[in-house]
Design goal:
Helices cover about 35% and strands about 20% of the residues. By secondary structure, it is an alpha/beta fold. It has a single domain, classed as Rossmann fold. It starts with a strand and ends with a helix. It binds 1,3,4-trihydroxy-5-OXO-cyclohexanecarboxylic acid (DQA). The site of 1,3,4-trihydroxy-5-OXO-cyclohexanecarboxylic acid has 10 residues, from loops.
């Protein structure tokens, strides 16, 4: 099973960025934890981050036929990007939406998610654990096939 992990804007600044919300661990540490779990679950992962909406759209389009699923933290684009939702629908990407925090418990403007309209499942509010839960969910589905 090949999983593409896509991270949106400002997630490269983990550790520095509002640590009271997002924690003290860095983006590199997030990548390392994802890779450790991938090895444990025997799944292949590729991890990418961009601050640009179009790059995320390109990567979703290009995932078709290459990756079995996408774990997507679109960050702020979650709440604004119809283009990301359209890309998910266009290539019928299997998407698991993740968030470090629980957006529904934050400001009102974070409650709506375009990504949720195209995602199979969502894990949020678990810190790095949201990504791990998404990987475990995908691996469990693979094992029960
Ligand atoms: C986030 C939540 C979003 O509302 C926010 O814009 C982010 C990060 C999270 O992982 O908790 O950038 O996706």
């Amino acid at each position: 099973m090949k999983i593409l992990v896509l991270n949106g804007p400002n997630l490269n600044l983990l550790g520095l960025r509002e640590p009271e919300l997002y924690g003290a661990k860095t983006y590199r540490e997030l990548e390392a934890e994802i890779r450790d779990s991938a090895a444990r679950l025997a799944v292949e992962v590729e991890i990418r981050q961009s601050n640009h909406e179009g790059s995320l759209v390109d990567w979703i389009q290009e995932s078709r036929g290459v990756f079995d699923a996408i774990i997507l933290n679109a960050a702020a684009y979650t709440h604004t990007s119809l283009a990301i939702l359209d890309a998910i629908k266009a290539v019928k990407a299997r998407v698991i939406e993740v968030h470090l925090t629980e957006p529904n418990e934050r400001e009102e403007f974070r409650r709506f998610s375009y990504v949720s309209l195209g995602a199979e499942k969502r894990f949020s509010g678990l810190g790095f654990g949201s990504y791990i839960a998404a990987m475990e969910y995908l691996a469990k589905g693979r094992d029960s096939q």
